[in-house]
């Protein structure tokens, strides 16, 4: 494993240590879920909360580390392994950050969970954008449209475009957060706006990949 992956393991251990340290300071029942306007709408016992959250983080970490090893195109990961490991690290840090936010809210600190999470999402999508630009064709990581998976040129163009778009998405999410931070009446709609931005950014590369495919098919149809 690379040093970056070992750093991710350290973050998970740190998460477990902080959870153990704060366990007896927390109420028996914790808010575990918030609605679109940051209203609490889900609760768990604190034991179940920690088991679920830390178990989810470890499970996703193992999935991210192990899945590439089973990919029939695993040799292509060598071209973007550094960026991929960095994404695993930032994802683990993101999960730790979300845990800390949740614990602070449950400890009685008057924090807006949506405003707290949005900057971390902005950073995460910016990092994903950097990874997308470097990826080579594979079955687990990237914008895996059927047209990109069957054509290296389509894959390259789609991921160069998608990477730039996701980095732009990170910047737009950060700007959205700034507006919501300074104009607090917008914070109630922050989650909805950010989800709309993410869905749009996810759809556009998919459509772009198809357009590249359709453009390449036209000359073939003319000759037939």
Number of distinct helices: 7
If strands are numbered along the chain, what order do they take across the biggest sheet? 1-2
Please tell me what the overall shape is.
globular
Ends: how far apart?
51 Å
Structural overview:
The chain is mostly helical. The chain has one domain (3-223). It is 71% helix and 5% strand. The chain is built from 7 helices and 2 strands; from the N terminus they run αββαααααα. β1 (29-34) and β2 (40-45) form a beta hairpin. It is globular. The model has no long low-confidence stretch (mean pLDDT 90).
Can you lay out the helices and strands and say which pair or pack?
Blueprint: H1 3-22, E1 29-34, E2 40-45, H2 46-66, H3 81-106, H4 113-134, H5 146-149, H6 152-182, H7 190-223
């Amino acid at each position: 494993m690379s040093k970056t992956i070992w750093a991710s393991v350290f973050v998970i251990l740190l998460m477990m240590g902080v959870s153990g340290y704060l366990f007896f300071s927390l109420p028996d029942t914790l808010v575990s879920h918030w609605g679109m306007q940051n209203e609490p709408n889900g609760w768990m016992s604190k034991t179940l909360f920690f088991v679920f959250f830390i178990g989810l983080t470890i499970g996703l970490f193992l999935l991210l580390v192990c899945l590439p090893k089973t990919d029939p195109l695993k040799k292509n990961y060598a071209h973007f392994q550094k960026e991929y490991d960095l994404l695993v690290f930032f994802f683990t840090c993101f999960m730790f950050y979300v845990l800390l936010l949740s614990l602070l809210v449950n400890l009685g600190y008057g924090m807006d969970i949506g405003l707290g999470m949005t900057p971390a999402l902005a950073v995460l999508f910016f990092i994903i954008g950097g990874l997308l630009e470097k990826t080579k064709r594979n079955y687990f990581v990237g914008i895996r449209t059927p047209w990109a998976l069957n054509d290296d040129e389509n894959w390259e163009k789609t991921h160069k475009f998608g990477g730039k778009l996701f980095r732009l998405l990170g910047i737009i999410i950060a700007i959205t957060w700034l507006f919501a931070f300074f104009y607090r009446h917008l914070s109630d709609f922050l989650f909805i706006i950010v989800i709309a931005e993410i869905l749009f950014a996810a759809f556009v590369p998919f459509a772009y990949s198809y357009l590249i495919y359709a453009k390449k098919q036209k000359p073939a149809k003319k000759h037939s």
